[in-house]
Every structure is written in structure tokens, then in C-alpha cells.
Amino acid sequence: SLCTLDNGPGTFQSCIMPRDCETSDWSLWSPCSKTCRASDMSPGFRVRTRSITQTPIGLGKECTALEEKEACNIIGDLLPNCPRYVWKTTDWGNCQVAPLLSQLDRRLNNVSVLCGGGIQTRQLYCVQVPDNSTPHHRKEVSRPVSGRLCTGDLPSAVQPCSIPCPLLCLLSSWSSWGACLHDNCMETHGRKGYRQRRREVLEEGSGTESCAHLLESMPCEDPVCFLWQVQSEGACVPTEGNCGNGTRTQTVACVNSQGQLVPEELCEDEPPPKEVSCVMACSGDCVLSSWSDWSSCSHSCSSKSSEGRQSRTRTVLGLPGEAKTCPAAAALEEWRTCNDHPCISFYWEASPWGPCIEDSSMNLNGTGYWNGTATCAVGVQIRKVVCMKKGVGPVIPKRCPESSRPDTLQPCLLPCKKDCIVTPFSEWTACPTTCLPVNSSVPSQSRYRIIIQRAANGGQECPDTLYEERECEALLVCPIYRWKTHRWHPCTLVPDSVQQGMTGASESCGKGLEMRGVSCVDEYDEMAAVSECLRWAGPMPSRFRSCWVPCRDDCTFSSWSKFSECSGCGSRRVRKRTLTGRSRKQERCQREDLYPLVESEPCPCEEFVSQPYGNWSSCILLETPGQGSLQGWRGRRQVRDCGHGLRYRAVACLDHDAHLVSPDLCSESGLVEEVCHMPCPLDCKLSEWSAWSACSASCGSGLKVRSKWLREKPFNGGRPCPKLDLKNQVRCAVPIGK
Q1: What's the pLDDT tens digit per position in 397-411?
Q2: Is 281 found in the same domain as 182?
Q3: Of 155, 295, 474, 617, which residue is the least packed, with the fewest Cβ within 10 Å?
Q4: At CA 287, angle to CA 281 and CA 288, rounded to 5?
Q5: What is the pTM of this model?
């Protein structure tokens, strides 16, 4: 009795009559997903589906599963074997050094001259293994398939390699000039002959053509064909007693220009003596070493202003006893003139061998091997040989000895031609199995083939087309269905009959439900099944919503007015509403904390400010088009490591309240850029060699030196100065008495 019925909670409300979900019958089972016998013995699956014919309403039962799945072909003994797939590889590409270099290490010079450690790459592709039951009479190249079909481990696609660096040819010093010999002792030509000197290759360079000439000749008179040569020397035998003056025997023989023994009668000059004088030291004598070898000649030839000289020395090994002395210092050194011939010499200069040209007159029976490389034909190489006068240039051939003329023609073996091998085209990629949405672009399908072996040695070149693309044909356009909504019906309240059965007064107001019709139509606005819209148009829009019918004592308001005009960034705009009807006189409705009549909001502001954010980036150098190629047909661009470039800095975009907003409101990229410059590396620079200094000794043997000095230090990673003594020194001699 203490509770009033007017303020009590509601005991009735509007509701939606429930209706359960309704579906179509199940479709037929789909084909089994397992169509072949695999090693994992996993089963296949098949599915069936059904569609919704009536969506649930209110508290009606929800739709149960629209798809069922069950196992099939569990054992699979009667199924054929599944195809097997394996990884295949192409040939390794050329060894490349450039990919391993950082931007700083790359230079502007041609990357094709780089050598040392590098990498090789190759392409991997998946193929189907032919069925053993299918006869195949020749080895065929399989077409590539999707890599998802191969399950084994991937072969390596990269391996280390090395490009040999070019080696300079290292030569010995020139030998002494030999005797005056006929060029051809079988055909002598009067009194004209040649003296020759030689040098040897101590270390081969990157090919014999990289070495300079090894033989020089100079004309001479009164040549011979045979010479006397000392073959061996015996021990010193004293003439009296066990020491003192004595003789030593030496064996001499007559040899030809190649050092081979010939009969003695062929040598026209007098032979050297078979005995020569010698001295064997007595006890108490000054003990001297043997004479050293003659030093190198100070000049390679003689002229009016210069004369070649060389020396030899011996040293005191033991001091003499009493009353005996050692020779004076001058007697421990001997000098003689050398290379007293004119400064005129000639040599044959040969150009590098040309390419190997096939010679049809010479053929190999089958395939041979040369230096580990298969060869299929014999060819010839040609080079140019010219007689050169040292320090002058080409001269007529007869100035050089014909016997030492290098060959101008040599046989060579041609490697076998390698034709390009490509796989067949892969299957066309699948076109979409579903329909195309309206106004969408037409999809395409593609296929490709892979180069397994590139052409070499004049073989057939690879085809230009490795990738093909075409539009998919005969694709259906997706049907157009849409949900069509109708007007909302008036708000449905609890019927009066229900309300009148309640104690107390009642009125038709309060919370209710309103309903609208929703139908499925096609593109021509014709009625269609609900299942079509559920498939093509998405979920059904709501058909019910809550509504409210104001009661007599409820506060009623007018609609909100439009927002007021803004006075600028940072200001606010307002909108208003008013009480209507009897609400204007009710004290409860006039409480603005419960029923506000004015609302405000910040004005939208279109003023934004850019503000630098963070540090500048590193200087990024601009790329320039390069002529080299990184991987054969794949183009590349040379990368510079110095010069002009650009650096960037992020820009924060802020609104009037200093809040971060999208950079698009301030600039297009959100970055500012400026030109920068990265200094280029400078190598160490040394001066040219200075002139030789005067000899350090006023007479006899001494040294003379020359030097370099530092002109410019290395900078910014340039080549450092060599860690070597920058001085050169050679022995010199000033004749005694000058």
C-alpha cells in the first residue's frame, strides 16, 4: 500500500512474434578431394550445402550449419598414384663481385673489371616427375609448375665464387750481350750477324701476351757459328811445395750457338789456354777470397757521353803473419768497361692472339677435350708481328733476326657450341572460377618459361619471349541483387485491452516497436528469393526497431536548430532547441542539467602548421644509368658514392591545438628535402721521381739516390700512401784519377 502504481515498473511491453530459420534441402555431395594415392595416407573430403529460405525473426531458432563435410577415399587402394614434384635448377650464372660491395666501396669505374670473391646465382623451379609407367624415349625438359607443389628442401640458389685478378708479368733482368753470331749458320750472309741478350719470365701474368718481349738483338760484324767455352776448372796446383804460385787446368770445348758440343775443328779462333796461373796461400800469408761476380753494367749501351762500367771485388779473409802484408784497398777491386756497343737494338713485337677462327679443313672425329673443356672443332689464331727499333718504333723486318721471329699463326681448339635451352611454357594460370563484380577490371592469366642453359660459343640464342599474358575470356558477370526496404510502420504499443486490464489509469504512450518490410529484388526491381540476396547482397537489414510515443507528462522539445556560424579557428559553434507544449510550464523539464537546450562543439579548423621532426637523413646520392649488367639480361644501374645528392627530413603536421594530424594536410609527402654533397675520395698523390743525386763517393764505388715526396694526403677513404721507402738507390762508380 506504500507503493504507488503510477511510478511502478512496467509489467508489459511490445514484442516480436518469433519465426524459425528455414533452409532448403541438402545439395548432392561434391566429388572427393582425394583423387590419387599419396604416401601420407590422409583421407579426402566431400561436402554438401544448403541455403537459407527464411531468416529467423525475433527469438526464433537460428540457422543451423549450411555446410556438411565427411571423409572419403580413406584407404585409397584403388586410386592411381599421385604425381610427384621435385625442384630443378638452371645453370649457374656468371660470377659477380658487385652485389657484395657496399655503396661506399663501389667506384664510378666499370664494374666489369672487378675481381676477387663474388657470388653466383641460379633459378629454382618445380616440375612434375614423369610417371614410370609412361614410356618416354628421350630426355625432355619438363614444364615448370607452381612452387607450392614441391615439398622437399630447396636447393641452394646462391654459391660463392671467385674471379681471378689479373697478374702482372714478372721478368728477370737482361742477360749480358752474347757473342756475335750468324742468324742462320746453314745460310751465312757475309760479315753481318747479331748479338743477343735475353730475359726470362719469372711469373706468368694473365696470359703470355701480357709479357713484354724477351729477346733483343743488335747488328754486329764478323759473326761466327761456333765458340770455345770453358766447361770446368780444376784445383790450383802449386809449382813448388805446398803453396805459392801454381797452375789450374780448365776444360774447354767447342759449342754451337745453342751451347751444344760440336767437333773442335769447327771453332776457327784459338782455344783458351788449358792451364792458367793461380796462387795458393801459404801459412802466414794474407788470405783473400775469390773474386766476386762482375756487377751489373752501369749502362746497357755506350754513347759519346756515357760508357758502361762494371766492377768486382774480393775481401780479406785472414790477416797475414809477421813481415807480411795484405794488398792495398785499391787492389781488392777491379773495374772494366762493358756494353761498349752502340745504343741500337731491335726486337720483335707480337700483338695478342686474335680469336680462334674455325678452319673447315681440319675437323675432330667427335668431341675432344682441351684444358678440361669439350672441343668440337679445330681453328686457327692469327697475330701481327712487327720489327721494332728500341726507343724509335717499327722498322723494316730485315733489321731483326729471322730465326727469332715469333709465329704469326697457331692452331687452336674451338669449344663446342651450346644452344640455349628453355623449358616449355608453364600452364596458363587459372582464371577466376567465380563471377566478376560489375564495373571491375577484366582479370588476366599468364604463363612463363625458364632459361635452363644460356647460349655460348655461337650456339642458338634464347627466345625473346619468356613471359606471356592474356585476358580471361567468357567470364560471367555476377548477378545484381539488393535488399529493398519499405517505410516504417507506426509505432506499435501494447494493445489497450491489455493496458485496461491493469489497475490504475493508463494511456497509449511509452516504448513500442515499429516494423518495416524488407524484400529481395534483382537489377530490374523484380522480386527474387531471399537466398539470392543473402548470397550476393550481404546480411538482411533490420526489420524491427524500438520506438517511443511521448506521454502526456513527458518533456517535449522542438528540433535542434542549425549550428551557428564559426568566427575562426579556436572558436565554438552552438545549436538550440526549445520546450514545446505543456513542457514549458513543468518545472522538471526546465532543468537544463537534465534536458539541455543548448549544445556547443569546437569549430572545424582548416589551418595546419608544418614543423620539422627528427634529424636529417644521410645524403642519398642520385643513381645514374649504367652500361653494365648484373645478371646477363637483367639491367642494372651504377651506384655512385660521392657527389651531389639529396637528404630528407620528416615534417610533422599539427592542427591549431598542436595535435598531430595526417601529413597530407600540410604537404604531399610529409618530407622536406635539400641538396647535399658527399665529398669524393681522394687518393694519395706522390711527386714524380727526382733526378739522380751525385755519386756519394768521389772515386771508386758509391751510391746515388732519387726520391719522391708527398703532394697530397688521402682523404675520405681514398687509396692510402704506400707503406714503402720512397727512396731508390743504385750503385755508381767514379773512375780513379778523375
Answers
A1: 988 998 889 999 988
A2: yes
A3: 474
A4: 105
A5: 0.53
